[in-house]
Amino acid sequence: MNAIELNAVSYQHKEFKLSDVSFQVPQGFVTGFIGANGVGKTTIIRLIMDLIEPDKGEIHLFNKSMNEHAVEIKDRIGFVYSELYLNEKWTVKKIESYIAPFYSQWNHNRFLFYLDKFGLAFNKKIKTFSTGMKMKLSIAIAFSHHAELFILDEPTSGLDPIVRNEVLDIIQAELIDEGKSVFISTHIISDLEKIADYLVYIKDGKIILDQFLDNILNQYQIVKGDVSQLDDELKSLSYYVEMNKTGYTVLTTHAKVFKELFGNEVAITKPTIEELMVYLEKGHHDVSQHVDGEVST
């Protein structure tokens, strides 16, 4: 079962365009959503949350359409947006009195717990908060009504490393109940290294990867060797090729070919999520069509 499904979703605003975007967010896992700035991550989150309408395609959460079941679905979602859209003249206390009625399982004590954990004063006005404090407040709200799905848009933005780790630990703790799911968009890839189970990667308005992370990292490998080994055929089997005086580095799903040809003369390693994203961003091959490591180039 999937917590979120997008099927052939298209959207255009001025020069920005998403075409036939399809992917899934499996229930009970942390799904990392990555891609360069400006490729449409925040727009897709807005589409999922029904803040803007797609031109065509279908979006389902918990196998239901947001159009038909908006109140029920949003009651089950903990949403952290990259900006906090609340009246800055309000205190945290007033914000809670405004927000709590929207959630059937709002937990005041849980909210106070997170305020205390993040060092946020209950009677202070939002306008006195820093960017990081506003993000902490947004996270406290999201985690205080027993949500089943957390949609997090840059949730650790503006947070210092210690608090970032605390937030990631909270996300992991929430998943002790495996019925809960997380969809997290972030440019801090090291965050995903710690918590992600599944990866959705968007490039140029298209979904490039949509798989469990272990499967992805078993498919794609980094190969390093002497430049003299690298011919045009081997380059064609690689998504990214970098050459310099000391040797070459390639990202490929055909590491076995390199190993069979050169044995111990090549070094083969699994990429980190950050290396995978950087190499695929820089690469020129189409990686959107692949099955079990076989790729159309």
UniProtKB/TrEMBL annotation:
Can you give the residue ranges of the ABC transporter domain?
A: 1-229
User: What molecular functions are annotated in GO for this chain?
Assistant: ATP binding; ATP hydrolysis activity
Give yes or no: UniProt keyword RNA-binding.
no
**EC number per UniProt:** 3.6.3.-
What top-tier enzyme class does this entry carry? hydrolase
Q: Which keywords, in A-to-Z order, does the entry hold?
A: ATP-binding, Hydrolase, Nucleotide-binding, Transport
Q: Which domain of life is it from?
A: Bacteria
Name of the molecule in the record:
ABC transporter ATP-binding protein
User: What species does this protein belong to?
Assistant: Staphylococcus caeli
